[in-house]
Design brief:
It contains 18 helices and five strands. By secondary structure, the chain is mainly alpha-helical. Helix 6 runs parallel beside helix 10 (about 285-290), helix 6 (about 190-210) packs across helix 12 (about 315-325) and helix 8 crosses helix 12 (about 315-325). The longest helix is centred in the first third of the chain and has 21 residues, at about 100-120. The chain is elongated.
């Protein structure tokens, strides 16, 4: 039973990823083994660092293609069950902004070099587009949260008085509104969409019968979803995939959310700033918070005589992934702290050795964003590694905050 539950999240992503990836551009063909990436050795150059807007690529297929094409899958597994030489990329590792996640890759570079030489694999180089797609893919791994418990979900349907009005598989109110139609959907966002659209009517009926409005916490929503989708025939499942964050941003404005809520200070002031309160909350947490917000929001809408926003399945899917994406873009770093890191990590010993050296790196970094900065750093590794071996300098491990501060320092020069 536990294995069956654990497959819910894995099969959703695997089915979507691999069906599309097979139709892709042939990434992952062959073993990927080439001449080993020896420190200081010339490697194939990526495309020139191009302008890349800092935004989450919520299309998991593109990131998975990069993961395969750059041979990451030769050592690391994500959803696969087999053991590989590198750590399995557990979703709990990948929280934070772009540079927070990139710092994990950066700090892993020396150990990765050892394994790639052993396996005779070429060290990957990245364009800014590829790096953004890969980091976006890793950022999205925690999105679906944990699988639910269908037995507990049935218990919640009883406890929250859902069966007073609804029926499911012969249980509950005989002439009630059936929940069986939700069984086919393999996304709990659809459950939220139905509950949200039905919210005003449901709240009125509950007020008339003096039934407490149900609120949820923890993994409740996922457990409910598991109860609804248990024992669905494979050929009747409907997979929605992950939404589009850019479209979700439009929904946030078009549906009027921005009139009350702000995103990092931009927008309405009457309700919480969602950039500070829900960014990178997984789909279960987001669904829970949005539903628990329904009663208070309906009251506000009635006071202002506003129309209740109705969402289609796709629109709700896009909105949820947009809210999840809010933590992806890095905030501006602290130049003073960046100078301290740049000196302590001995970056200045090579890059500021002469006035010409300083002028070059400052010129290269002056107008780049965090993705371009990360691509420059990563593609600099071969020559940097060789120099550090010669001068017996330890690898400069850095957190995402330290990388932000170093970038701010270099751009302040």
């Amino acid at each position: 039973m536990q294995k069956k539950k654990a497959l819910v999240v894995e099969m959703f992503l695997l089915g979507m990823l691999f069906c599309f990836a097979l139709a892709g551009s042939g990434c992952g063909e062959g073993s990927g083994k080439k001449e080993a990436g020896v420190p200081g050795k010339s490697v194939s150059k990526p495309e020139q660092v191009q302008t890349q807007r800092v935004s989450l690529v919520s299309d998991l297929v593109e990131g998975r293609k990069v993961f395969e094409a750059k041979n990451c899958s030769q050592c690391h597994s994500i959803f696969e069950r087999e053991r590989k030489t590198g750590p399995k990329l557990q979703s709990s590792r990948f929280y934070g902004s772009f540079l927070d996640i990139f710092s994990i890759l950066w700090n892993h570079a020396p150990a990765m070099a050892v394994h790639m030489r052993k396996e005779v694999l070429e060290r990957p180089q990245f364009s800014t587009t590829e790096l953004n797609q890969l980091v976006s893919f890793l950022y999205m791994l925690p999105y679906l949260g944990q699988p639910g418990d269908p037995r507990r979900g049935v218990g919640l349907l009883k406890e929250k008085a859902c069966f007073s009005c609804h029926s499911l598989g012969g249980r509950g109110k005989k002439d009630g509104i059936g929940l069986d139609s939700l069984k086919a959907f393999q996304s709990q966002v659809v459950l939220l969409q139905r509950m949200w659209n039905h919210g005003p009517v449901m709240l009125s009926q509950m007020a008339a019968t003096r039934t407490p409005v149900p609120t949820f916490s923890g993994n409740d929503i996922t457990d409910l979803f598991s109860a609804l989708t248990e024992q669905v025939k494979e050929n009747r499942k409907i997979f929605m995939g992950v939404g589009n964050a850019d479209h979700g941003q439009k929904m946030f404005t078009e549906k009027g959310c921005i009139r009350c809520h702000s995103i990092f200070g931009k927008g309405g002031k009457e309700a919480p700033d969602l950039g500070k309160t829900v960014s990178q909350s997984n789909v279960t947490i987001l669904t829970t918070r949005l539903w628990n917000h329904v009663a208070g929001m309906r009251e506000k809408f009635q006071q202002k005589k506003l129309e209740w926003p109705i969402f289609s399945e796709t629109e709700m899917n896009d909105l949820i992934v947009f809210l999840y994406s809010l933590n992806y873009e890095d905030k501006t770093g602290n130049p003073g702290k960046g100078e301290e890191v740049f000196t302590r990590k001995k970056c200045a010993d090579c890059h500021f050795m002469t006035a010409a050296d300083k002028q070059k790196i400052v010129g290269d970094i002056k107008s780049v964003n965090s993705i371009q900065f990360a691509a420059l750093l990563w593609n600099h590794i071969p020559s940097m590694e060789a120099s550090m071996v010669i001068h017996a300098v330890p690898w400069p491990e850095m957190s995402g905050e330290e990388l932000r501060n170093v970038l701010a320092y270099l751009q302040s020069q």
